[in-house]
Amino acid sequence: SYGLAIVKPAEGRTQDVVDVLNAYVESEQQSMEHYLEDQYQIAAAAKVATVPTGEVVMVCCENSDAVMNAIKTALAA
Q1: Going by C-beta distance under 8 Å and a sequence separation of 6 or more, which residues neighbour residue 26?
Q2: What is the DSSP letter of 58?
Q3: Are strands 56-60 and 47-50 parallel, antiparallel or unpaired?
Q4: Among candidates 53, 52, 71, which has minimal Cα distance to 61?
Q5: Residue 7 pLDDT more than 90?
Q6: How far apart are CA 66 and CA 55, in angstroms?
Q7: 3-class secondary-structure state, position 11
Q8: What torsion do the CA atoms of 58, 50, 20, 11 make, to the nearest 10 degrees?
């Protein structure tokens, strides 16, 4: 249940990218819900966000909050 994406959408396509990445996260959550508890917890904590610089970021890993914050900081630099 690990995944990381940083996508710069074409103009007017941000919501499409958000929808696809959210669908991926939901799929991972459903796949792991009754299979591997530790992997389900990782998928359940996944984050999808559009950052101020315009990229859509998906983080599905351990420490997802810290990883998301580090990516946001790096993209803003």
Answers
A1: none
A2: E
A3: antiparallel
A4: 71
A5: yes
A6: 18
A7: coil
A8: -130
CA 74 → CA 40, 41, 69, distances in Å?
28, 26, 9
Encoded amino acid at 40, one letter = Y
Q: Residue 17 and residue 24: Cα distance in Å, rounded?
A: 11
CA distances from 67 to 11, 15, 33, 36 (A): 26, 22, 23, 22
Nearest by Cα to 41 from 53, 50, 33, 51:
33
pLDDT per residue over 13-55, tens digit each? Answer: 999 999 999 999 999 999 888 888 888 899 999 999 999 999 9
What pTM was computed for the model? 0.90
